[in-house]
Amino acid sequence: MSDDLLDNIFEKAAAGKTLVKNRRTLTIDYVPEKLPFRDEETKTIAQALSIVLRKARPSNLLLFGKPGTGKTAVAKNVIERLHKKARELGIEVIVPFVNTKTANTAYKVLYEIAKDMGINKGEKKLQVHFTGLSMGEATDRILDFIQKKKFYVILVMDEIDSLVDKNGDDILYNFTRANERISEGGFISLIGISNSLTFKDKLDPRVRSSLSEEEMVFNPYTIEQLQKILSDRAKLAFNDEVVSDAAINLCAAMAGKENGDARRAIDLLRVAAEIAERERVSKVEEKHIRLAQEKIEKDTNYEVLKNSTAHTKLVILAIIKSKNGNTGEVYETYSSLCSLSEQEPLTQRRITQIISELDQLGLITSNVVSQGRYGRSQRIKITVPTLTIKEALKDDPILLHYIDN
Ligand SMILES: Nc1ncnc2c1ncn2[C@@H]1O[C@H](COP(=O)(O)OP(=O)(O)O)[C@@H](O)[C@H]1O
Ligand SMILES: [Mg+2]
After folding, report:
1. Domain 221-303 bears CATH identifier 1.10.8.60
2. CA angle 68-356-102, nearest 5°?
3. Which carries the bigger pLDDT value, residue 51 or residue 167?
4. Predicted TM-score (pTM) of this structure
């Protein structure tokens, strides 16, 4: 390649306006210092935890609310400020923060708690070498450590619903009982954060009452609140006048209409900016937000389809192949696809359940239509483009084969 050509590319890139001033402020991990519309929540949590500054144990706390309602952000901000204040006062408060969904296994959760507490930095005999230890032993070591050090621990377990779904509530049981064991000095308080509103139903009654000594529900943001959150974020992230008000409002309306989800709103803005940059235009407009919405939806649909069970995939195929899309016909088509692919078909009842799950995920629509004197029947339609489905089923060549004919 000639030097001229390279120069040309680089000069063009340098001359092109950058839209984004601070990309970090659009990433998931970024927590802004100010969180508008969360004063009440912040105050309640801060008040509950503040008694640690008088060297007493704060109540355990359960925060829940739908995704993107600011739970993690508020918890992180309060904890950080509390930590700072405690240090100023010469009080040592240990605050392990574990996302139990990313940690994935109960074992890894314990490991991260231990690491955050600095367990392996101290005396040899207290160190926890996790390999070979049972879960109970590992927990005991952690609690011994807290007791020996007389630590004040506020343990935050984020996305705790996912831990309980996968591993049950044993860890929670052990930690909520821990203060009975830790006498003299140290203590441990728990902050559980859950995206699921029905999370408490899954807990053993003893764990439930202990974990939710105090509770706080985070409500979804309104469209107007999302507008303010987005315009604040846009000022941090973008150069002046890059994002139009119309684009912000559309973004807020789209995210607000779905779940009042601030994460979705910020994702839309980030993806829209990437699209605008690729187009080499100097403004993020409404059309970029629309394209971003399509892209995000396509990506999530793809992920859901790709990770669904073989039978769900067969149901999807059956819906595509059936002419009228009524439940009976879908079930028949599904059964014949099962026998072609040598699978034992599930019951009609189970298939009806799968269909309603797909409906809730927005992958299909199902309407009840009147068929004149033949009564009423359900009509099921796929809302996902065939191309996305083909893409998602690519790794199941046998299934893919059924789409084309
Ligand atoms: N009140 C707010 N002001 C500004 N940004 C917010 C606010 N609430 C949430 N966010 C942002 O929205 C995204 C999702 O918030 P997060 O706390 O992760 O939600 P949750 O934990 O409830 O799923 C994060 O990027 C966060 O910084
Ligand atoms: Mg969160």
Report:
1. yes
2. 35
3. 51
4. 0.81
